[in-house]
């Protein structure tokens, strides 16, 4: 085809477009109009959109990735289908329970019983029952009986003054909005306690008050509907203490995987959910709001909900811009990376070295949980969890090199295990470019500085996401935040 | 347990239907000319339909825990059909906190107002995880809606 012909064709096409506006390609030109645009298709954004839709509002959800759910992410393609993100539903997780019921998702008792844990401290192995009296145990009196993997959380728990779920937002408790290191030191924690806790907790960069809110919420859940209090110490997530005699298990999971929940929510929203839409700008300088995406598409709305983490919002151009403490929050709120490796134990290596199956070490391999077999399973599953600096050590490498490093580290610290396990998957949340962490984490002083101010609506922009929680924790906190943003908008719409 | 689950599922489905079907027509239902039902007592003021409609929107904060139709039974919080002027913690199918079970008050306007501002102020140790409504007019709106249940 000659160049002239091509040009002619192009010209006639554009002439046609001008005279028949309906035939014009929409992309990059006309903005789609709706009542509310929700940026982010995780649990918070989806819950917000569902509630608004129930009240008859037009809603569009813009999800940047090709999958809804955000940090609710079941690895469906991987053997045993591990959960990369959230999975635990506590008894008092009202919104999660209600949604599952309404969307016909079945809940099953969490079947994840962690086998006993030996510890390797300074290169010496100690079985759990020998820990308190072991010469390797350099903890002070009153600390010695605490397993090394729980030292930080247990000592912090003893200092927790919070009673009610919203106490953490009260200035009365802001004296606890200091680093865990400062608070533990001030209250006489031994140097060895600080050393052990420092292997898995970011002692210097985490607000004690933030951790205490989570602990208070966890205890609340453990006591919900029970007349006694429980020991709920656990390094990561809720304690796994399902008891056989109880009618409702303490922790449940969604049958088929956590991803089924956001998928069902998105299905209920239908074509209101748009995948692959990365928001680049939120313009509220006119009489309404306009959200522009990287692909050139535009959406006009009366209200916009930011249901993305601040680690993402801080890269979106917002006009008028944030100011004061809210601007500080958007820019500076801390995020944490957690990396997990999932696998199967091929041979029970613990029969060879006489130690317990699970273990904790003060090296790169922090925590290896070996799970009791579930009915029908012929091998034990395991999960390795890396936080803080060790997750950075893993995350810097491509997956194959990272797994090779972990494998050689395990073989070095626990030779009996060498060659007796197999990895299935590795996932590091810090590497997710649209999330950049598994969760928010207030740095010391940030709660007092902006925890209350950060969620105040900014012009037509409202805030949701687990980082904007008030009372809740985990999945429930995401749902809580979406609900709050929905009510805020319902009051204005 | 299975039976209980089934009941909850059924209740939730009814609620679901109410939510999806009912709320879409809400403005019409609560239009100003839609007179309040005749009251059997001259001293009871008819509910302000606007306030009730606003309260129903705020009830989004409550709906995950509290069903509103008696046949639905209780979710993780008590069923609120007939809650106004009901004695605290009296439903059989509900897991109340020990703190609330020890109370002996009635859900009148005054108590509801304190409760909705911050539940723990009225009953320290309550198991109702609710962030509270700082604005008085929002509490009044929810209370107006609760009176209709």
Supply the key terms.
heterodimer, A: 493 residues, alpha/beta, FAD/NAD(P)-binding domain, Polyamine Oxidase, Chain A, domain 2, 8-stranded mixed beta sheet, B: 149 residues, mainly alpha, Cytochrome Bc1 Complex, Chain D, domain 2
Mean pLDDT of chain A: 90
Name the chain pair with the biggest interface and residue counts per chain: A-B, 35 and 36 residues
Strand content of chain B: under 5%
- Count the DSSP helices of chain A: 15
Name the structural class of chain A: alpha/beta
Query: What characteristic shape of chain A results from the CA principal axes?
Result: globular
Total domain units of chain A:
3
CATH topology of the largest domain in chain A: FAD/NAD(P)-binding domain
Give the quaternary arrangement of the chains.
heterodimer
CATH homologous superfamily of chain B?
Cytochrome c-like domain
Q: Which of globular, elongated, flat, extended, rod-shaped describes the shape of chain B?
A: globular
CATH architecture of the largest domain in chain A: 3-Layer(bba) Sandwich
Rounded to an integer, what's the Rg of chain A over CA atoms?
25 Å
Give the H and E element order of chain B: HHHHHHHH
Q: Main beta sheet of chain B: strand number and arrangement? A: none
The count of β-strands of chain A is: 20
Largest sheet of chain A: 8 strands, mixed
The number of distinct structural domains of chain B comes to: 1
